Amino acid sequence: MNSIHPVNVGLLGIGTVGGGAYTVLARNAEEIARRAGRPIKVSIVADRDIKRARSLVGCSCQVTDDPFVVVGDPAVDVVVELIGGYTAARELVMRAIENGKHVVTANKALLALYGNEIFAAAQQKGVIVAFEAAVAGGVPIIKALREGLAANRIEWAAGIINGTTNFILSEMREKGLPFAEVLSEAQRLGYAEADPTFDIEGIDAAHKATLIAAIAFGIPVQFDKAHVEGITKLEAIDIRYAGQLGYRIKLLGIAKCRQDGVELRVHPALVPEKRLIANVEGAMNAVLVKGDAIGLTLYYGKGAGAEPTASAVIADLVDVTRAATIDPDNRVPHLAFQADQLRDLVILPIEEAETAFYLRLTVEDKPGVLADITRIMANEEISIDAMLQKEPEEDEGTADIIMLTHVCREKQANAAIGRIEALSSVRNSVTKIRLENLQ
Ligand code: NDP
Ligand code: HSE
C-alpha cells in the first residue's frame, strides 16, 4: 500500500475540527488506507495562526497562512474546508472546484446558503463536494439518507441537530442551571459556533435541516424559506409544566413532505418523554427518519467536537478517494437525486404547518372562563387533548391554564390565540410551543 501514490489533502483551518481531522488521520493512517485503497496524507495546511498550526503538525507537511496557496497547489487532490463562515470559505471552495479539486467540508452555513451554486459548479467540473460532517457531526445521517434509504419515499425527518442547544436544555432541566452559565460551558467545550447566536437562535439547526430536506426530498437547498425559532424565549416554567404532562422540550429541526409542499421548520417542541429521542441529552444529536418502506429509523451520536466531527470528515475523504476514479455521472449525486431530477416543491409558510400545540395562559380564576376558552377552541375546530390548571405561586386570584391540542393547522391555532388574548379574563399573552408526537 505504501508504494501507492497517496491522496494529498490540503487542509483549510486547523482549529477544533481541523485539529481533530489531522490527529485522527495520523493516528489511524494504516486502517484508513486499508479502507480507502490508498494512503490519505495532509500535504499542506493553511491557518491564520501559523505558529499554532506548525506546533500541531510539526514538519510533517507544509504550513501557510494563505488558504489560496492551498486551493491553487497542483499537488493537492482534495481540499478540506474547515475554516467556517461564508465569505472566504465560499471563494475558496469555488476556487478549489475551478481548479478541479474535490472538496470536503463541515460548513453547513456555507452549503445551506450557497449549496446550489457550489453543487452546480462541482457537477460541471466533475468533482465531488462531500459534507457528512455538516449535519449532526459524526453521525452518518447524510450517508444514510443518500444511500442507505435510497429505496424509500422519505415522509419526514425530525432531529436534535444542534448539540449546544440540547446541552443547554438538558442542563437547565436536570440541574436548574441558568441559560447563560450553560452556554459558556458549551462554548468552553467547543460545541458552540464562533457566533453562538447561530446555535441559540436555531440558525445552525436550520442550516442542517435545510440540507436534510434537500437530500430527503430531492429539492434545491432553500434556507431562506425555513421557519426558524431558537430557545432564547423559552421559559423555565414551560419546561416544568411540559415535564408534569409527560413531555420534554427539545429544539427540533423538521423536514416533512406533504402533497402540497414541504414543511421546513426549526423550533422548540414538546416531545413525549417515552420516545427515545426525548431522552437524547447533553450535546448528543439524534435524527428520526420516516421512510415509506422501512418505517421509522433513528440515528444517534455526537454531533460536535473535534474527533467525532473528524470521523465524518475522514469518512468523506475515504469516499472521495474511492469514488475519484469513477465516471462522474455514475457517482452518488450531491443531493442524493440526479442533478436533473431535483423537484420544485414549494416550501410551505409556517401558517400552513400541521402540528399539535402546548398553550399556556394566565386567567382570572372565576366561573365561565374555561368555558369561554374551550368555546373559542371549538369554533376554530381545534380539539383539546389535555388540560391542566395550576395556581401560580405569587398571584392569587389567577390560574395558569395549560392546554395540549390535537394536530391542527398553525393558522387555526393563531386565530384561536388571538381571540383568547382578547378575552378580558385573560391576563397575559398566550405562550405557544409546538408539540410533535414523532410517531
Ligand atoms: P475553529 O474556529 O475552531 O477553527 C477554524 C480555524 O480556521 C481557526 O484556526 C481559524 O483561525 C482558521 N481560519 C478561519 N478563517 C481563516 C482564513 N480565512 N484563513 C486561514 N485560516 C482561517 O472552527 P471549528 O473547527 O469549530 O469549525 C470549523 C467548521 O466546522 C465550521 O464550518 C463549523 O460550523 C463546522 N463544524 C464544527 C463542529 C464543531 O464541533 N466545532 C461540528 C460540525 C461542524 P482563527 O481562530 O485565528 O480565526
Ligand atoms: N454548534 C454546533 C452544535 C456544532 O452545537 O451542534 C456542530 O455542528
Task: Characterize this entry briefly.
The protein is an alpha/beta fold and 439 residues long. It has 15 helices and 17 strands.
The class by helix and strand makeup works out as: alpha/beta
Number of beta-strand segments: 17
What ligands are attached or bound here? NADPH dihydro-nicotinamide-adenine-dinucleotide phosphate, L-homoserine
**Shape descriptor:** elongated
Unreliable runs, pLDDT <50, ≥5 residues?
Answer: none
Average pLDDT confidence is 95
Number of helices: 15
Question: How far is the first residue's CA from the last residue's CA?
Answer: 48 Å
Description:
The chain is elongated. The strands form 2 sheets. Strands 7, 8, 9, 10, 11, 12, 13, 14, 15, 16 and 17 form an 11-stranded mixed sheet that branches. A 6-stranded parallel sheet has the order 3-2-1-4-5-6, sandwiched between helices. By secondary structure, the chain is of the alpha/beta class. It has 15 helices and 17 strands. The longest helix has 18 residues, at about 110-125. The mean pLDDT is about 95. It binds NADPH dihydro-nicotinamide-adenine-dinucleotide phosphate (NDP) and L-homoserine.
Helix-strand blueprint:
Layout: E1 7-12, H1 16-27, H2 29-36, E2 40-46, H3 50-57, E3 62-64, H4 67-71, E4 78-81, H5 87-98, E5 102-105, H6 108-125, E6 129-130, H7 141-148, E7 154-160, H8 163-175, H9 179-188, H10 197-200, H11 203-217, E8 227-228, H12 236-244, E9 247-258, E10 261-272, E11 284-291, E12 295-302, H13 306-323, E13 354-364, H14 369-379, E14 384-390, E15 398-405, E16 408-409, H15 410-421, E17 431-435
Parallel strand pairs: 1-2, 1-4, 2-3, 4-5, 5-6, 8-10, 10-17
Antiparallel strand pairs: 7-9, 7-11, 9-10, 11-12, 13-15, 13-16, 13-17, 14-15
Helix pairs in contact: 1-13, 2-13, 5-6, 6-11, 8-9, 14-15
Bound molecules: NADPH dihydro-nicotinamide-adenine-dinucleotide phosphate and L-homoserine (HSE).
The site of L-homoserine has 11 residues, from helix 8.
